[in-house]
Amino acid sequence: MDGEKWKKVCETVQRIKSKKWAKEMDDVNIVVVDKSWASKVGYYDYRRKPPRIVVSGLRAVSQIERTIYHEIAHHIEFRHAKGFIRHRGVCHSRNFHTIFEHLLNGHNSSLKEIIDKLCSYPRNRTGWEWKDETRTKFVFIR
């Protein structure tokens, strides 16, 4: 990555860090690498202390920024969403998309305002909770 692009990426990260929700969330390290992967452009590693976001720097600055927001949405859901349940094979829940769209739209709201917009997490993978097996009613609690 050349010096000019690196400067723009640093400015982007500083702009993200200045957001109200970013100051309120748990710490996360953001690492931009000169590497690419076949099936992804970044990832969120929640097992590290503090968690780490790794993003490919071999893309345009706007794409790097979008990927950082994408991975921050995973971080917010994983660390801050009440009752978060990660079901195997489901990486992008309804709540993930709610958080991601909020971040992409540039809102400077508090983390609590973002979290308050989320739905409750279903106990099973499909998201449907059958109230009575003989009747086909379902409940999805918001």
Summarize the structure.
Helices cover 39% and strands 13% of the residues. With 142 residues, it is α+β, with helices and mostly antiparallel strands.
Computed over alpha carbons, the radius of gyration is 17 Å
Strand order of the main beta sheet, please? Answer: 1-3-2
Largest sheet: 3 strands, mixed
Distance between the termini: 44 Å
Helix tally? 5
Structural class: alpha+beta
* % residues in beta strands: 5-15%
SS elements, strand count: 5
CATH architecture: 2-Layer Sandwich
Average predicted local confidence, pLDDT? 84
Percent range for helical residues? Answer: 25-40%
- Report the principal-axis shape: globular
Number of domains: 1
The CATH C-level class name: Alpha Beta
> CATH topology, anyone?
Zincin-like
Listing every helix as H and every strand as E from the N terminus to the C terminus, the arrangement reads HHEEEHHHEE
Low-confidence stretches: 134-142
Task: Give a written overview of the molecule.
With 142 residues, this protein is α+β, with helices and mostly antiparallel strands. The chain has one domain: Zincin-like. It is built from five helices and five strands, in the order ααβββαααββ. The strands form two sheets. A three-stranded mixed β-sheet has the order 1-3-2, covered by helices on one side. Strands 4-5 form a two-stranded antiparallel sheet. It is globular and about 45 Å long.
